[in-house]
Design brief:
The complex is a heterodimer of chains A (111) and B (115). Chain A contains no helices and 11 strands. With 111 residues, chain A is mostly beta strands. In chain A, strands 2, 4, 5, 9, 10 and 11 form a 6-stranded mixed sheet that branches. In chain B, 0% of the residues lie in helices and 50% in strands. In chain B, the strands form 2 sheets. In chain B, strands 2, 4, 5, 6, 9, 10 and 11 form a 7-stranded mixed sheet that branches. A 4-stranded antiparallel sheet of chain B has the order 1-3-8-7, with no helix packed on it. In chain B, strand 4 and strand 5 form a beta hairpin. The radius of gyration of chain B is 13 Å and the shape is globular. The chains are: A mainly beta (111), B mainly beta (115). Chains A and B meet through strand 4, strand 5 and strand 10 of A and strand 4 and strand 5 of B.
């Protein structure tokens, strides 16, 4: 089955700097790649997603890139702010109704 | 519009006891899921359902059973609880699976402790 690896497990960046979180997936049939943000004590919420027919997608300060050949995708957050501190999860799905998550990255924004 | 509601939110069980977690959604979603979240392990799929009357196994189904008798409800059962099932359980739903919209709407989570 699908396996999603996520790195790093913890990331600390200075406020205003950029943060990058990387994920790899194992099943070349996967075609949908969402990212979820989970604030402390809260439920995960979708922040951005990308499908396999697109190489990059942006939404204000966040962007996701996808390299199908290498089977990896990344989340980029620019101009980080304190409210970006959270756990971020990548995930992959091949349209068979399951979605498999990575183990998460805890992002700390330092003042 | 409450979204996805889970009950109970907290529960303490003794080893061997049974219990049921209830997930209810009012968004008329076809797809529903149960995940467990453990430190450092991310969100792992237990079971899921693609419509009323259907269920399917996820990544970690052992020790759990599910039922989807009504479209709006998805029940997760533990027949004989074990300490390894201590976790936070999240229910989620989505409109049409991942072929179209893809977005999962999560409940607030249910914290289960098995002593």
């Amino acid at each position: 089955g699908e396996n999603v690896e996520q790195h790093p497990s913890t990331l600390s960046v200075q406020e205003g700097d950029s943060a990058v979180i990387k994920c790899t997936y194992s099943d070349s049939a996967s075609n949908y790649f969402p990212w979820y943000k989970q604030e402390l004590g809260k439920r995960p919420q979708l922040i951005i997603d990308i499908r396999s027919n697109v190489g990059e997608k942006k939404d204000q300060r966040i962007a996701v890139t996808l390299n199908k050949t290498a089977k990896h995708f990344s989340l980029h957050i620019t101009e980080t702010q304190p409210e970006d501190s959270a756990v971020y999860f990548c995930a992959a799905s091949k349209g068979d109704d399951k979605i498999i998550f990575g183990k998460g990255t805890r992002l700390h924004i330092l003042p | 519009n409450a979204g996805v509601t889970q009950t109970p939110k907290f529960r303490v069980l003794k080893t061997g006891q049974s219990m049921t977690l209830l997930c209810a959604q009012d968004m008329n979603h076809e797809y529903m899921y149960w995940y467990r979240q453990d430190p450092g392990m991310g969100l792992r799929l237990i079971h899921y359902s693609v419509g009323e009357g259907t269920t399917a196994k996820g990544e970690v189904p052992d020790g759990y059973n599910v039922s989807r008798l009504k479209k709006q409800n998805f029940l997760l059962g533990l027949e004989s609880a074990a300490p390894s099932q201590t976790s936070v359980y999240f229910c989620a739903s989505s409109y049409s699976g991942f072929r179209r919209t893809g977005e999962l709407f999560f409940g607030e989570g249910s914290r289960l402790t098995v002593l």
